[in-house]
Amino acid sequence: MKIVKMLQDIKLTGSQDNQFLGDMFEGFLDQGIKQSEGQFFTPMPIVKFIINSLPIEDIQKTQENAKAIDYACGAGHFLNEVAKNFDKEHHKNIVGIEKEYRLSKVSKVSSFMYGQDDIQIIYHDALAKTKDIKDNDYSILVANPPYSVKGFLETLSKQERNKYELIKTIEDKSFSANNAIECFFIERAKQLLKKDGVAGIILPSSILSKGSQNIASTKGNIYVKTREILLKYFDIIAIAEFGSGTFGKTGTNTVTLFLQRKPNNPDIQKHLKYMVASWFEGDFAINELFKDNNLLELYTLHIEIELELYKTLLGNNYDERLFDLEIFNEYKQEFLKLSDTKNRKKQKSYKALSAREKEQRDQKELLKYIRVIEQDKLYYFCLAYLNKKEVLIIKAPTNGAKNKKFLGYEWSRA
Structure pTM? Predict the structure, then answer.
């Protein structure tokens, strides 16, 4: 009866914001869904900030029947806000995907309440393929996808898992334990967005720094690979970092990545990979063929090494002066700790070598180790450097009062 009285003066449908109903839905669903799914609803000030930061109006003007998607739509806040920027006749081009059945129904009710009945809500796992959702079909993607969800890979078929580059970083026996679902949502964004499509995606801050590449591993690190996907397939427009109080009950620090999908053609990744590979074969004449022929020099300035000294590494020539530099000395120390390095020195064939031969063998293996790392780093430096624009960084204050003012809200302790 109390709930009926609360609702009796509220119009259930209309175009105006109805935050009361949204809050009520979230209150009912809070314990049963959010904590078990690793997903937290997005406060409306954050929703509005993300939507208003995207060039939706420009996209509407330049693209006929532009489509928008939220592939983890929850209660539908992003969808409702996007729809305000679309003509009613184009609401059918707005799609939400939600794996949790109750939330998919909430999203549908929410769209109904806002008079946005034509928004499509699909009850489905967004990481799995469905005939209703086509790749390279969306101009706008906004989402606050789940994170740290164990066992999500086991809900996908082998065929579905193999559509992701990231699956190569995970052992089959680790599928049940792997919880890096947010990484797969980033790659899914790459699949869904069309050329020049834009995205605003909320992610844990750790996505930008977690994990490190182990040169001895054949699988690689999933977080490193995720960052590679970001650099290969997107121009990073802006990064907004929010503090731990943004989402109330979770203390997780988050970032919102504002991205633009790079065109697949011309294939800049292959162009740069070929150029960097040529440098590591000692071919510098190839620079004359490329517009961005100063990237090697820019990289050496970035890591603070003389170009001519770096070229000794590119020419596969051992130069002791390299190890006067901190970064190369760190490479050497890591190389000495490798089990492969230790095991090689235990081999009879190694022990039979003269002192000079051992030294030459060690230098050869060390150079090989460093060159693999540096070739990778140089390639991704080039990709990052060719980002279309300077990246805008927005960082929330750490001070509680200032952060409250920055966000425009605070959470009740009740």
Answer: 0.82
